[in-house]
Amino acid sequence: MKNFIEEVTWRGMLHDVMPGTEEHLMEQMRVAYVGIDPTADSLHIGHLVGVMLLKHFQLSGHKPLALVGGATGMIGDPSGKSNERNLLDEATLRHNQEAIKGQLARFLDFTSAEPNAAELVNNYDWMKEFSFLDFIRDVGKHITVNYMMAKDSVKKRLTGETSEGMSFTEFTYQLVQGYDFLHLYRAKKCTLQMGGSDQWGNITTGTELVRRIESGKAYALTCPLITKADGTKFGKSEGGNIWLDAERTSPYKFYQYWLNTSDVDAQKYIKIFTFLDKETIEKLIAVHNEAPHLRALQKRLAEEITVMVHSVADLENAIAASNAFFSPSMDELKKLDEKTFLEVFDGVPQAEISMEDLNAGLDMIAALAAKTNFLASNSDARRELKQNSISLNKEKVGEDKIITKEDLINNQFLLLQKGKKNYYVIKVK
């Protein structure tokens, strides 16, 4: 039996743990669960810490349960939120559950014949037939309002300056989540719930229900909420969440997110989001500190997690796309599909021109100024061309260059460049 608590402690994944948890886990195979919000048909990287906890739990010889909150997803967790969320219907929740299970299968072993094979459970399955009267009689009577009001997640919502209070629906959330723990304790012999540090109040409500109703002993463990060194929110980009679904966040953008992490964050993330051992990580950090400009830590982090979430082929394509931007020739860029090409040049100014303009004979002055406004005027365009500072598709051109269909990248793009760093993309439609 591997020591799970030791493993998550050195990785910086432990925030709070109930006394006696480590000893409990070292006695024999145990069962633990993490709740996952099913409000979308994909996980995002904010979910990954909980998923990694479950994987380390399984690697330590224990049985992980991934609980999709079909019932709690219909209510909305008040923890860490200032507003009540939109509620989802059952069909949407079921669709989301199946999509999430497919992503979890890349991390957790659901098919093993071993007793610690992972399982996916949905709390809607045991809550849907539970009447309101039965719930308040069988569960509600065991937890006092004073106990519920003392939880930070409740107090913050009730006392915040901009607070509109909280509905009874959200107030009862901790009871529903607590009952999940009680149900899994009874049905699956689950004795540990894990989650983010903002979940401590909800989790301990579950341990209290196990104690009061079953006279049993259950445990709680939370991990820190992941932050970025610069104070911005982890898991967000200008385009929103970084998703595990390739259709929502492409493997290229996924790879770039991790590649662009700061040195401080990379040292933290490589322990949390990879399965590299302690010795390997310490060597990587030492190598990185000797030559930080080579970004060895960020590269290894991005490689490990892109393969884990997507595939080796997706990683290779992402690296090729990243290299294409800096390549002195067009060979690599020509290999990119339209979506990846536009992602590589995301944020670069763009213009559209018609194929008719191109067929009529597009000269460089028009391409630089009149048709695109890349440069402010025709005279600016002439001056830059005379100074040999303009490139078309990474090749220097003069004023006499006429652009034709043969110059198109993937039959639709032209790449203009002034100097080394000023790019402009023309899309021909």
Automatic annotation (TrEMBL):
Keywords: Aminoacyl-tRNA synthetase, ATP-binding, Cytoplasm, Ligase, Nucleotide-binding, Protein biosynthesis, RNA-binding. InterPro entries: aa-tRNA-synth_I_CS, aa-tRNA-synth_Ic, Rossmann-like_a/b/a_fold, S4_RNA-bd_sf, SYY-like_C, Tyr-tRNA-ligase, Tyr-tRNA-ligase_bac-type, Tyr-tRNA-ligase_bac_1. ATP binds at K236. It comes from the Bacteria. Its EC number is 6.1.1.1. Residues 343-426 form the Tyrosine--tRNA ligase SYY-like C-terminal domain. GO terms for cellular component: cytosol. A motif ('HIGH' region) lies at residues 38-47. Homodimer. Catalyzes the attachment of tyrosine to tRNA(Tyr) in a two-step reaction: tyrosine is first activated by ATP to form Tyr-AMP and then transferred to the acceptor end of tRNA(Tyr). Belongs to the class-I aminoacyl-tRNA synthetase family. TyrS type 1 subfamily. This is Tyrosine--tRNA ligase.
